[in-house]
Amino acid sequence: MSEPLQSVTINVSVNGKACRRDVEPRQLLVEFIREELRLTGTHIGCDTSFCGACTVLLDGAAVKSCTLFAVQADGAQVTTVEALEQDGQVHPLQEAFSEHHGLQCGYCTPGMLMSSVALLAENPEPDTQDIRKALSGNVCRCTGYQNIIKSVQAAATMLKGA
């Protein structure tokens, strides 16, 4: 039986809150988020980095948290889907996904939302191809993607008017 690895202390900002924890060097960022911080909006879908359900923002960039170790987030800012709601108000993307039927079972939705947040931060007026490219790392088995694309377009319009 192998011995436990020595813990490493990391300092990370998660959804704007400073967090200092001791973690095993092999602990995945998605496990840290879900198990240590109890932020379960970030989903574990495929365990192979294919589906994108675990997408979070790392210093503003969309990343699959199942492909990173928690120690790699040391000193970084991590944003999860829980941060989208502010003061009881849902994010325009969340509102658009609801209004335009961009979700069905909802399992992929957190990853879709976070990839879309990153896209709209970089490109506030994306066309359909931009949206498709940004979401190409996220798999949905329910919707057929058309309503997801409509949702991102609607959110872009809402954010532009805000």
Your description of this structure?
The protein is α+β, with helices and mostly antiparallel strands. It contains five helices and five strands; from the N terminus they run E-E-H-E-E-E-H-H-H-H. The chain has helices at 29-36, 92-99, 109-122, 128-134, 146-161; strands at residues 8-14, 17-23, 55-58, 61-64, 77-79. It has a five-stranded mixed beta sheet with strand order 2-1-5-3-4, covered by helices on one side. Helix 2 (92-99) crosses helix 5 (146-161). The chain is globular and about 50 Å long. The model has no long low-confidence stretch (mean pLDDT 94).
Primary descriptors:
162 residues, five-stranded mixed beta sheet, globular
Computed Rg: 16 Å
Main sheet overview: 5 strands, mixed
Query: What is the strand arrangement across the widest sheet?
Result: 2-1-5-3-4
Order of helices and strands: EEHEEEHHHH
The computed structural class is: alpha+beta
Mean pLDDT score: 94
Helix content, binned percent:
25-40%
Measured by DSSP, the beta-strand proportion falls in: 15-25%
- How far the N terminus sits from the C terminus, by CA atoms, comes to 57 Å
How many DSSP E strands?
5
Helix segment tally: 5
Shape: globular
Low-pLDDT runs of 5+ residues are none
Subunit arrangement of the protein: single chain
